[in-house]
Amino acid sequence: MKNAAVAPQISFIVPVYNAEKYLRPCLDSIICQLDSNELILVDDGSTDTSGNICDEYAAKYTGIKVSHTENKGASHARNLGTSMAQGSYIVFVDSDDYINRDFSEKFLQSGISADIVFFSMRKYLKNGQYILMNDGISTEMIRSANAEQVLDHIAGCAKFPASPCGKLVRRAFLNAHHIHFAFNRISEDYDWTYQLLHHGKSYDFFDGGLYTYRQLPQSRSAIGKSKSVEDQLAILTSWEQRECETIFRQPLNAFLAYEYAMILPFYGALPKKEKEKYRGEMRRCGYLLEYGKTRKLKLIRSVSRLAGVDLTSYLLYKYIYWRNKRYGKQ
Predict the structure, then answer these.
(1) What count of other Cβ atoms lies within 10 Å of the Cβ of residue 288?
(2) CA-CA distances (angstroms) from residue 206 to 90, 142, 166?
């Protein structure tokens, strides 16, 4: 049993909202790791039995904290969980996902110590198969490297590591730089990750960690909604206009190129009248694609030059629709 006087090593934070179908497997993957860690459950106003499940686990196991709040979204839940945390590191786990059960044991044995520690994620498909969500981050390229080298490496990775999951983040680092999730904004994970990379001084990769992500139907529910484009453009333009030192400015433009490409299918799914509100800004921000370093971004840049923003965004939307239909959802 964990000594209450000893601070936990890792705070696992799980925002919970109407997740009764998958919540138990998620919690079961963590409760076996609580000897030197803690689990923080933030019930975000669930209307199903999720809140009761949280209380059930807290009554049965030590090292679990539960907070029940009004429904304010995942950003609020993650921020609240962070404020409750006491661990040296914070790991976010979504309530329909799970992690490997020897995660903390392997991490503590690794001796890794850095502000930001990445680890592997994989996607679980409806047909029972797994796809490694390989963003291409190399241990050799970020371990013991300086911030400029790390940022340059990440800027060239196939996938920008925006998810709050898939990272161990030093809690003292988060507090020192007042890093939090923007409230009530879609794709706030990009903004949060930009803050990490902006302030980070030390990075590493933990090859003993594995996070399993389920792509549920609501994972793409924001496509075709005006707010999704509005919020993502607001995040992009706020960082586009921010004054940053050169060490961050150059890779930031590459990161923003990736984010812009992510906005395109959301914009492409909008009705014609809704598109009119954002067409000018989408065209203006198109220059960011010039900073893209990956093969996919270079392809999108070439298509955009030939076909324009509207047709490119529509083609990307149709591609995502086809891809999701082909691989299926939970």
Answers:
(1) 21
(2) 14, 11, 10
